Amino acid sequence: EIVMTQSPATLSVSPGDRAALSCRASQSVGSNLAWYQQKPGQGPRLLIYGASTRATGVPARFSGSGSGTEFILTISSLQSEDFAVYYCQHYNNWPPWTFGQGTKVEIK
Amino acid sequence: QLQLQESGPGLVKPSGTLFLTCSVSGGSISGSRYYWGWVRQPPGKGLQWIGGIYYSGSPYYNPSLKSRVTISVDTSRNQFSLRLGSVTAADTAVYYCVRHFDWFDPWGQGTLVTVSS
To answer: Do the Cβ atoms of A1 and B63 come within 8 Å?
Structure first.
């Protein structure tokens, strides 16, 4: 099973600032990585797939990068609606599909 | 727009069986290239994929849960279901139904299932 590790667990950011969230895979997953956003009381929302392709309707301030074992989700200028928990997920050599433990982006 | 909605009991007794159904609207399960699956999230914790099934009935399960899980599909009702046996308090979680192939999209709103006597 591929283990996904996200860091930091919590990121304190001021509105308008840039945020960079890290996701590391225990073995190479190529570009087979997705990112999700989850707000309290809601199911996760797909943001990024293929490591860098934005899902339909996702604002351009969200960008993904990386390949192999190291990935970054960047939010270029945080808006109030972006404060949430973010998860990465691999889809290489499934099953199982596995998720990282999440990074909470909170207001500084 | 495809929508998924979970339904089922919110309280299950220890050693009992959890049973949830996901109703799909805005699209058909039949003939889809996607898997229809379940993900759970214990309170305050991360996401765990439970399993998924193709419309023709070929399931995949998380090895850590495989001995207790059954996922089935009813194409006539455009629904799929989760059965998890021998539940304990560790199975208390919000259960989401999802459509997936590689990534998961869309997700249902989730339903909280508590295991308690």
So the answer is: yes
pLDDT of B56 strictly over 90 = no
Non-local (6+) Cβ contacts of A56 within 8 A are none
Over residues B8-32, mean pLDDT = 95
CA-CA-CA-CA dihedral for B62, B63, B65, B66, to nearest 10:
100
Q: What confidence score (pLDDT) does residue B57 get?
A: 81
Give the full edge-to-edge strand order of the sheet including A19-25.
A4-7, A19-25, A70-75, A62-67
Measure CB to CB from residue A96 to each of B63, B103, B107 and give the nearest one: B63
Count CB-CB contacts under 10 A for residue B22. 27
Cβ B107–A45 below 8 Å, yes or no? yes
3-state helix, strand, coil in chain A (%, to 5): 5, 50, 50
